[in-house]
Amino acid sequence: MHTILSSLICKRWAKSAKVDCLSTIYTNDVDVDKQKTMMLRQGTLSSFCNRLVKVVGSDENKFLETCGDINRIIPKFEKQSCVNRKERKQCSIIGDPILVKIKGAPRNKNKYGKRKRCENYRKSGHTIRKSSKLISQDMLKLIAKELSSSDDV
Predict the structure, then answer these.
(1) 52 contact partners, CB below 8 Å, separation of at least 6
(2) Cross-strand pairs, 117
(3) From which domain of life does this come (predicted)?
(4) 57: nearest Cα among 46, 42, 65, 73
(5) Alpha helices, DSSP H only, in the chain?
(6) How many Å apart are CA 33 and CA 45, to the nearest integer?
(7) Which residues have C-beta within 8 Å of that of residue 53, sequence separation ≥ 6?
(8) Residue 114, SS3?
């Protein structure tokens, strides 16, 4: 036997098991709480989104195409929900907001204060005493003084 009879295959093993199960939940005319149906719908959308992430996440072209499609679908449904609620004036689609500088927590002052810097190189941790240019200039001045003092004697 090369193929398995369809009568032997359980529905839960089929690839369309989730879709069939979810579609039967919504087609049955059973009085269910609105909150439960909303939770079921959100769970269904979540599972579809998770599956979409697995399929689309690996390929850049698929990712960009899917992002474009989702960005087209969302405003469409937002407009429909505004029309259904008859709150057109209140419901407006907001574009990208201008970035606002957030104050946040103030910076803590360093308990040690500012570090000393070299006047020549303007780097912290490199002071006048360690500056090679200034040391060589000072040494030349000292040598010149010593020479001039030795000439006077």
Answers:
(1) 66
(2) 124
(3) Eukaryota
(4) 65
(5) 17-27, 34-56, 60-85, 132-152
(6) 18
(7) none
(8) coil
